[in-house]
Amino acid sequence: MTLDPRPLTPALEAAEAAGWATVRLDLDGVRSKAELMRRCGAVLDVPEYFGGNWDALADALKDLSWLPAAPGRLVVVTSWRGYAEARPADWETLTEILEEAVDFWRAESEGEGAGPELTVLLAESVPGPAAGAPSRTPRLKRRRG
Fold first, then answer.
1. Cβ neighbours of residue 70 under 8 Å, at least 6 residues apart?
2. Sheet with 21-26: strands ordered across
3. Signed CA dihedral, 13, 129, 86, 97: sign only
4. Torsion over CA of 121, 140, 63 and 11, rounded to 10 degrees?
């Protein structure tokens, strides 16, 4: 996972050219955990049984079986500073969950029968469809309480 606010257009174009699934999670206006969970559920297109809590989000990011097959997945989180400032403890938990998912998929991609990799980039803005809008397809570490 990177917090470096580099321009994302080249990364998005490269991922899409390589056949990776891309997800744009725009946190603009999100100021509560409930809204964060709704936004994550919508953007990740999670199954109906998604529980809308930290453990459910962690499980969803380590499953992704309902998404189309792809050699890799890129999640771009944008407009996150407002949420991080409004909910610092929740932001820390979210980044830990993202780091855990990246680590999980990295290990999966290195094993026998290697699976797709997951990469997460954090940026203030990114061109393209807004979060909450259906996107094509989808790095993070500590556990939450």
1. 19, 20, 21, 116, 137
2. 21-26, 72-78, 117-123
3. negative
4. 20
